[in-house]
Design goal:
4-stranded antiparallel sheet; 5-stranded antiparallel sheet; 4 helices
């Protein structure tokens, strides 16, 4: 089976029929997963790997602020002395100031979650002594995401703290429908690519004999927090306090996108 290539790059296996003959490949029925195969037979084929996509306006947005304290310990006067300066921690009062700033922006308190990580071991992926504030916006309120980030980061700076670049994740209730549209787009693109290859080779394009799912991802950034590519396993407000969200890009539209990469095999007519 051919390796996965870049988007819309087609390949033709060459072997077996003289020095430049078309290779034979197992001909199977279209399949839903990379592992299940139907009946096989002998026949030359054209193989293409393409990525389709489908987008829709976001219906939910999750914002994330990771807060860190300033850390500049002074060395002891005695070089042999044991250091007594402990790593600084973000306090509950610091976090509450950020929460209050978000509430002042009209965000419901039940749509805000926080997590304060102690300065000891086991600080998780954010590191010890940090805090995470996440919040959710729905519908038209998504347009206020820039204002929410401005209010939250200003509150952090006013308390003499630092913060990571704000993170955000856009989601859509139509995720499953978009998956189907993305697969249909990929198949249409794959057929176009295969026809171009067939024309370049001077052969006819036959029937689709094999369809193999390579991957499904979500955007505008490729969110990959679990091994699953199912819509129900995307990050939500509850899991966002334990996962880094993609950095927020204010220049991107408030849209949710599904990308579907497939490998298609067509017979030679």
């Amino acid at each position: 089976m051919s390796p996965t290539l870049d988007r819309r790059r087609a390949i033709v296996s060459l072997a077996g029929i003289g020095a430049a003959g078309l290779a034979t490949s197992r001909s199977t029925l279209a399949q839903a997963t990379p592992t299940s195969e139907a009946s096989s037979g002998e026949g030359a084929g054209i193989v293409v790997t393409v990525t389709g996509s489908a987008s829709a306006p976001a219906t939910h947005a999750i914002g994330q602020i990771v807060i860190r304290n300033q850390y500049a310990p002074m060395p002891p006067d005695d070089p042999t002395a044991k250091g007594t300066v402990s790593a600084p921690e973000v306090s509950a009062e610091d976090v509450q100031a950020v929460v209050d700033a978000l509430i002042a922006q009209g965000i419901d308190q039940v749509q805000i979650l926080t997590n304060i990580i102690s300065a000891g071991v086991g600080g998780g992926m954010f590191g010890p002594g940090t805090a995470v504030v996440v919040f959710q916006l729905d519908g038209e309120q998504i347009k206020t995401l820039p204002d929410a980030f401005e209010a939250a980061t200003s509150a952090v700076a006013e308390r003499g703290l630092t913060f990571d670049p704000p993170g955000a994740m856009l989601l859509a209730d139509t995720c499953q429908d978009l998956r189907g549209e993305a697969f249909r787009d990929a198949v249409a693109q794959g057929r176009d690519e295969a026809e171009l290859m067939a024309d370049a080779l001077g052969v006819g394009l036959g029937e689709l004999t094999l369809a193999r799912k390579q991957s499904v991802s979500f955007g505008p950034a490729a969110y990959g927090y679990t091994s699953s590519d199912a819509c129900e396993d995307l990050v939500n407000l509850g899991t966002a306090v334990r996962s880094f969200l993609p950095s927020w890009d204010a220049t991107l539209p408030n849209e949710f996108t599904v990308f579907a990469m497939v490998e298609l095999t067509f017979a030679i007519a």
